[in-house]
Design brief:
- This protein is α/β, with parallel strands linked by helices.
- It has one domain: Ribonuclease Z/Hydroxyacylglutathione hydrolase-like (Metallo-beta-lactamase, Chain A, 4-Layer Sandwich), CATH 3.60.15.10.
- It has helices at residues 58-65, 80-83, 90-95, 106-115, 117-120, 208-218, 234-239; strands spanning 3-10, 40-45, 48-52, 72-74, 100-104, 132-136, 142-143, 148-156, 159-166, 169-172, 191-195, 222-226, 245-247, 253-257.
Amino acid sequence: MSLITLTVLGSGTSVGVPSIGCDCDVCTSTDPRDNRLRPSVWLRYNNKDIVIDTTPDFRYQALRVRIPKLDAILLTHGHADHILGLDDVRPFNFRQSGAIPVYASQATLDTVKRVFEYVFSDAKNESSRPKLETRVINGEPFDLHDKQIVPIPLLHGSMPVYGFRIGKLAYLTDHNKIPDESMPLLQGLDTLFLDALRYKPHPTHSTVAQALTIVETLQPRMTYLTHICHDLGHQRAESMLPDNVRLAYDGLTVTVDS
């Protein structure tokens, strides 16, 4: 049985932590786990390297963990904090033959093509631009480098987005509701990553309490909360969680049997 290694590139919310101009206890914390870049993860299996979301911090994230190459990109949705780093994949293109496949819903790809119009334009370009090959996710499982990727439909407010399951690992960010029809897709997990923005309700994100309710229902072996804002200081917030629920942090690496 092969292994899947997941490294958290960013565990923060859309503005990151520390937040610009904020002098709260978390934004001024000396605990490195309270420094949170925008939300993304790096998956490695079968000697393949895949990222879920390319944040505005992607260049620094890739350098910090030394991602050696990029075999595919999965996008959860088209919000700025999840796609604006796409231009930074160019150095991978320089060293790799062929375009990098980008898997996303049609709505997300439409946003990507609008925001990065120059990437997909037929017009002559005097400088380099990313070489990307778009592949539409229609909700059905698909094979990626000899593993099945299961898209998990979620709701981010009223916006449909995707999480992803690979074997016994699932990564669900940016959601405030997991539809009933998605719950069977999340049975039998070893490791689960869940959106848990803060304690107070939010119209498009889960709270810590909502995330813990999902954990109680699904009973994965281990759960990590992510997309965290500056309301949660790592040490104090984690001290109040069950032993099988931890806060994700930038640089966290977990390995799961597939």
